[in-house]
From TrEMBL:
This is Tryptophan--tRNA ligase. It is an enzyme of class 6 (ligase). SUPFAM superfamilies: Nucleotidylyl transferase. GO terms for cellular component: cytosol. It comes from bioreactor metagenome. The gene is trpS_34. Keywords: Ligase. The keyword Ligase applies. GO terms for biological process: tryptophanyl-tRNA aminoacylation. The keyword Phosphoprotein does not apply. Its EC number is 6.1.1.2.
Amino acid sequence: MYEGKGYGVFKEDVAEVIVESLRPIREKYNDLLNNKDYLEQVYAIGADKAERQARKTLRKVYKKVGLIERKYLPR
């Protein structure tokens, strides 16, 4: 197929195939990026999950170090 053609032709065809293969991913990325409500929801869920994990870790640290756990941490 590429016999007798320059390497540049092959590279252009490969680049085109890659661009077309990545098109659905790029479109999904752009859709998500433009959906601010969804992004805020994902951020909030992630923040809640991180806070729960941090509290769990702090409880373990307090216990190991011998500190008294703060019962009323602000939320």
